[in-house]
Task: structure prediction
Amino acid sequence: MRFQTMRWLVSANIRQAFVTRFNPPLTPSLGAEYQLVQRSRFKLTTKGSVSRNYRVPTLNERYWIDLGNPNLLPESGLNFEAGLAAAMPLSDQVNLTAELTGYHNRVDNWTYWNPAINYHVENLQLVIARGAEFTTNLTYAQTSWRAGMRLGYALTRSSQERAYDTYSQDVIGKQLVYVPMHTGTLNTYLQYKQTRLSVQMQANSRRYITFDNTQFFKGALLTNVLLEHTLKWGSMPFRVQGQINNVFDALVIGVKRNALPGRNWAINVLINFPQ
Result:
């Protein structure tokens, strides 16, 4: 169901799934947006949503050889989200947008591939993820030139708040492993006609590798650079890309015993065949 006026946008949905051996409940969701300010060069919108979620374990999670768990329980959660979004043209060529969102997700029987037990899958009894995200975009466009910058920050507090095992009380309230509490991103580009240079940067705070948060990987900064040019061969456009990943050769470890590659290069040719 969808309802819209000059200032309001409201959407509602009810879903009922049917799965063999499971009994999924109704999963309703409700979202709304309201334009607080609506002027010629400035818009401010508030938004919010609430939803009930239910997820049946996948076939891999249940039956993957040696790692799967046929007795895995389905996830069930309740999610809340609210935020503000602003759009403000600074001139005919420059536009600025910003968005701030807060969320609170409660998930029972969180499905987790646990690296501490050789990546066997298990349920965490209750996980609560809450935090905030902020993004802002600045763009410029004029004739042959285009440029843009996107800045983002995410605060993620995810913790196990209840455990099946009475011996796991020391992990209650601790940050989940491999989930950084702070993440920042900066993406920029500069384009002249058909040539575009992009720089992508992502910084993460420390990531814990034990459930009691006694051991961790240090924070890291990952930087990628991409240069591309668009050409035409007859009526067929194609792009030539050259990229350098992990420019500063940082040691970035995704999960224990699995590091991302160091500095590496790639050349790509992307062809768009006409229909």
